[in-house]
Specification:
Helix content: 25-40%
Structural class: alpha+beta
Organism: Gordonia amarae NBRC 15530
Number of domains: 2
CATH class of the largest domain: Alpha Beta
Pfam family, one: TY-Chap3
Strand order of the largest sheet: 4-5-3-2-1-6
Largest sheet: 6 strands, antiparallel
InterPro entries: TY-Chap_N
Number of helices: 7
Order of helices and strands: HEEEHEEHEHEEEEHEEHH
Distance between the termini: 27 Å
Protein name: TY-Chap N-terminal domain-containing protein
């Protein structure tokens, strides 16, 4: 299975998450349920990364993934099914995939589940995972009302990136923060000129003719409603806005998580379509 490249800091964060998950599973009782999913409130419809943990009648801890939470695209679904089988998931007739172990081997379950988040759904950091069984978070006491200027806001964003995602080597140039590339697509964070929003942006390629561009936008707008495709300086840019009126770690990680999801699952196809359009290759939506 193809996995995104991770630096040592990112890998260490996943190692710590895997160990912590095994401990939580050990404490899971017979009547308890633990659900772990990706932060995805921006996309209320469609498949979301989600794993449900329960304890069987025999006292074994079982992790379950539903077919409904896998890719809706037939090719993507087939790739995920093959990948799950490779790392130890068992496909049942009821449309679920399970892996289970006794209390002495919960490291195995935690390892396989972590590989699923990394390899199946390309979750870039455990900060983008949400424990659905925890009570809803109260408004963050760490929210910040700041002068909306690069000098005031960008250092806070750098702190969030380092503290929440382990990205300590992001650079600031021309009042924007460059993020690590995802499948070859580089992106950055800057301040909007139109209000108190952060803008995650990426250049997806040279703009094709308006007819082809309209077809590409129409084909992807419903799947990625929180991402805007626009043309500037003869290039196509993807932009995802994050509310920064009261900046907090929670809303920043939520917004950045959905942006990474787009870069991993949406941007590659759009880049390919733009490239095909510019090369004159036919495309049927």
């Amino acid at each position: 299975m193809e996995q995104m490249p991770f630096d040592a800091q990112m890998q260490r964060a996943w190692d710590e998450y895997e160990l912590g998950l095994a401990v939580r599973l050990y404490d899971l009782g017979r009547d308890d349920t633990l659900t772990v999913s990706a932060v995805s409130a921006d996309v209320p419809d469609g498949p979301h990364p989600r794993v449900v943990f329960t304890v069987t009648g025999a006292g074994r801890v079982r992790a379950t993934i539903s077919d409904a939470d896998l890719s809706a695209d037939p090719d993507g679904y087939a790739e995920q099914i093959d990948g799950m089988a490779e790392i130890g998931w068992r496909h049942l007739a009821n449309g679920t995939h399970i892996v289970e172990a006794g209390k002495r081997n919960l490291e195995k379950v935690a390892f396989i589940v972590t590989r699923a988040f990394l390899g199946l759904w390309h979750i870039t950091h455990p900060a983008f995972l949400d424990d659905a069984d925890e009570p809803p978070a109260e408004p963050s006491p760490d929210s910040k009302s700041l002068p909306f200027t690069p000098a005031a806001v960008l250092p806070v964003i750098l702190d969030y990136l380092a503290g929440l995602t382990g990205l300590e080597d992001c650079t600031v140039e021309d009042d924007r923060i460059t993020l690590p590339s995802v499948y070859g697509t580089r992106s950055w964070i800057s301040l909007s000129k139109h209000g108190p929003w952060l803008e995650c942006a990426a250049n997806l390629g040279s703009a094709p003719d308006n007819t082809m561009l309209g077809q590409i936008i129409a084909a992807h707008a419903l799947r990625w409603p929180y991402v805007t495709l626009l043309v500037a300086q003869d290039s196509v840019f993807a932009v995802r806005s994050i509310d920064a009126a009261d900046l907090s770690p929670d809303n920043f990680v939520h917004g950045l998580g959905s942006w990474h999801k787009f870069l991993a699952h949406g941007a590659p196809a759009i880049v390919e379509l733009i490239s095909d359009a510019n090369a004159g290759r036919p495309w049927e939506p």
